[in-house]
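User: I'm writing a short report section on ligand binding and want a predicted complex to refer to. Could you take this sequence and NAP and write out the structure as tokens? A short remark afterwards would be nice.
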Amino acid sequence: MSNTYAVIGDPIDHSLSPNIHNAAFRHLQLDHTYIAYRIPAGELTAGIEALKAIKIAGFNVTIPHKIEMMKLLDEMDTTCKVIGAVNTVLNDNGKLKGYNTDMIGFLDPIKKKNLTIEGSQVLLLGAGGAARAIITAMVKEKAGKITIANRTQENAKELTEFAKKIGGNVDVAPMQEVDELIADYKFIINSTSIGMKNEPSPISTENISKNSIVYDIVYQPMNTDLIKKSKENGATIIYGYEMLLSQAACSFEIWHKTEAPYDVMKKALLGGV
Ligand code: NAP
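Assistant: Sure. The structure tokens for the complex follow:
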């Protein structure tokens, strides 16, 4: 195998993963490189052949390839199978092994803060790929009722069916009705892409209080409108960058079989905070 790693997706030029992984390589004095490689939708098979030809050691997978990549794997772990998407691939002498580190990446910041999920009410905004990993995580950790709210009802229903199949206690609420329900939920999670373009919060923050835990998985910008207003109301905040770092650390450990230098990776991302 080569000592090159990559993240594939489209768009990919904004990816923060090369910064994070290359900082870890430098710190551990590993002679490795991590690059961003744009593979447009519809060109995945050719793109993966090219990566195999250069004996890529491993790669991360992001939008739009997380589901399609599953078909090109030789093996996959259970998490990858359950979620139905892959975000980490290890090239084991030509055999591509798939993993999904989004679930652990999502849970890790909650565990680090010693917050209890078991029996807690969860409001999940969004029903895309990331939401699937989050639902899987919340069901695994025995959350209480999980309410899904999403712009497209059809996608919310589909995610509900998936959640029920894996044993979740779930229902769907129309996005317009969510504001009145907020006080009933301990965890309020944004897994929509709202916030990436500095849009206003997808929900009213009026009823968010110090009893709420607000987790916005959008990581760019770090302080979304939802985060800023929830912080003002005294809520416990979990930032999208915390999930990004934890899933990156988990991918790192799959590839390198050694503990990821989390603080170094964090510094590379936040610039010394
Ligand atoms: P996705 O599969 O494309 O899903 C996007 C979700 O956002 C869908 O629920 C979609 O609703 C909703 N949405 C998009 N634009 C909207 C709008 N204008 N109004 C209302 N809803 C809208 O994407 P994904 O992979 O789940 O990622 C979602 C977000 O999470 C992205 O910002 C991504 O960067 C972030 N993310 C962060 C991490 C991390 O480590 N922090 C990891 C993964 C993803 P519809 O169903 O109605 O289209």
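A remark for your report: The CA atoms of residues 45 and 72 lie 8 Å apart. The pocket of NAP is lined by residues 63, 102, 105, 126-131, 150-152, 155, 191-194, 196, 217-219, 240, 243-244, 247 (CB under 6 Å).
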